[in-house]
Amino acid sequence: MTTTKTLLAAVLTLLLAGCGASATTSSESASHSSVPAYVTEPFTHEQQLIEQGARLVVADGCSACHLTLTKPGLAPSFSSFAGHRVKLRDGRKILVDEHFLREGLLHPRGAILKGYDPAPMLAALARLHLDSRQQQVAALAAFIEQIGPEPG
Predict the structure, then answer these.
(1) What pLDDT does residue 76 have?
(2) Could you give the CA distance from residue 134 to residue 102 in angstroms, rounded to a whole number?
(3) Boundaries of domain holding 114
(4) Is residue 24 part of a domain?
(5) What is the dihedral of CA 52, 18, 82, 71, to 10 degrees?
(6) What pLDDT score does 30 carry?
(7) Is residue 52 one of the residues assigned to a domain?
(8) In the predicted model, is pLDDT for residue 48 greater than 50?
(9) CB environment 93-123: b (16+ within 10 A), e (fewer)
(10) Considering its fold, how many domains does the chain have in total?
(11) What is the C-alpha to C-alpha distance for residues 14 and 26, in angstroms, rounded to an integer?
(12) In whole angstroms, what is the distance from residue 138 CA to residue 145 CA?
């Protein structure tokens, strides 16, 4: 689990830093041989989903509300979301797991969290048309679940 979190941190760092945007020469590439193997080795299917989810979170603007600490209370932080029980507006308490995440992404009106304005999330999900993009739903759910805290 720790290796996956380290991989996730590396992927996020690369995404947010725009790493790879400039060309490197073969001599420059040779000098980067100290890069850890987990950055260069082939990803498993699960790791590919997590990496794709990380890219979607950044590209679709989700990171502005869900990965920042500058606006507490705007949206639940992905870093403390998965693996926890949340209270829905209708009073139910639900464990945030892969099933909840997938259902929430596909049918967000059925999973409105208490204490948060649902309008930005509903608008964002409507714009993304995830109901016809099952691969993106799987990738987002995998990323959100993985970035959460390790089970205690």
Answers:
(1) 86
(2) 9
(3) 2-19+43-147
(4) no
(5) -140
(6) 43
(7) yes
(8) yes
(9) ebebeeebbbebbbebeebebeebeeeebee
(10) 1
(11) 20
(12) 10
Residue 25, domain member (yes or no):
no
- Identify whether the C-beta of residue 92 lies closer than 8 Å to the C-beta of residue 73: no
* pTM (2 d.p.): 0.68
Q: What is the DSSP letter of 36?
A: -
Written as one letter, the residue type at 101 is L
Helix, strand, coil % over all residues of the chain, rounded to 5:
55, 5, 40
Task: Fill in the amino acid letter for 152.
Answer: G
pLDDT > 90 in the chain, percent: 34
CA distance 10 to 38: 9
- Tell me, what's the pLDDT at 38? 67
- Rounded to 10°, the helix 45-59/134-147 angle is 90
- In a domain, residue 134? The reply is yes
Distance CA 73, CA 12 (A): 23
CATH number at residue 114: 1.10.760.10
Q: What is the mean pLDDT of residues 105-134?
A: 90
Angle 113-116-120 (CA atoms, 0-180°, nearest 5)? 105
Mean predicted confidence (pLDDT) in 77-87: 87
